[in-house]
Each structure stands twice: as structure tokens, then as C-alpha cells.
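User: I'm putting together notes for a lab meeting next week and I want to include a structural view of one of the chains we've been expressing. I don't have a solved structure, so I'd like a prediction I can at least talk through. The sequence is below, exactly as it appears in our construct file.
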Amino acid sequence: MEAILFYLTATVAVLSAVFVTQCRNPVNSALNLITTFLCLAVFYIMLESPFMAAIQIMVYAGAIMVLIVFVIMLLNLGLAVKERYTHGMAAGGILAALILFVANYFIRAGEATGTGGSVTSEVIASYGHTELIGRAMFVDFLLPFEIASILLLVAIVGAVILSKREV
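Assistant: Thanks for the context. Below is the predicted structure for the 167-residue chain, given as C-alpha cells.
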């Protein structure tokens, strides 16, 4: 039963990811991206990580997509004349297929990195998902976390500046 749910969710995720790139309307692409994010949340639930699934839905499918739709509406991309650029699609498809086959090989051959982590099921049961993620984010990876927040702020300011007709 788990395999059927996985393959069904994976099919929906891949199809919605393809539609993100193929839709001519940017709002439809954003809606397909939300579907992809929701499929990723289902994968987190299947991996017994409900906290990450909730964060995936709240942060990415919620807040980040609101920002993306806000920028789409702010830049008024729906009225722009669009041309179909296909010169890079074949090379991108071949590269994506190659990466898929290499990843599939490493996953089937054993551990993808060849190393094991210190976080086991017993550690997760004793501490909990939230404490382990919070400790890693705000102790071990505080600088990358702050850099990502500054980059998001710069992107928002850039979108507002780009959307102004006269500066």
C-alpha cells in the first residue's frame, strides 16, 4: 500500500513540476508549484517526519508562494508577450534524465553518501523532531540561515524596485 501511495504521489509531483515549466500563464505555473510542494509534504509524512511536512506546507506552499504570486502580480507578467524558447529544452531534458539515472543507481547501490549520521530513530524519539531541527538551524547553521533570510529580503526589495514604472 505504501508503494502505491509513493508512486501515485511521485507521478503527481513529476507531472506538476513539468507543468510548472510548460504553462504559459505564470499564475498557473505557481499553482502547479504549490501542488509540487504539497506532494513533497506527503513524502515527508511517508518518511515519518510530520514537523517537516507541516513546515513544508506553511513556509513553502503558504508564505513563499504568496510572495511569488505577489511578484507575478506586481510585475504584471500575464500581459507580457511570450515566446517559446525550445533550444535549451532538449539539452535540459537529457541532463535531467542522466541525473535521474545516476541518482537511481546510487540509491539502489546503497547509501547515497556512504556515511551514516548520528541521528537515529532512538535519538529522534528521545529529543523530538522540533528540538533537533531547531538546534541544527539556530546553533550549527545559524550563518547560512541568516544569509538566506537576507537574500530573500533583497529579492523582495528588488521586485518592488523592478515593478515601479518611474524610479
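A couple of points you could mention at the meeting. The CA atoms of residues 98 and 104 lie 10 Å apart. The longest helix spans residues 50-75.

User: Perfect, that's what I needed.
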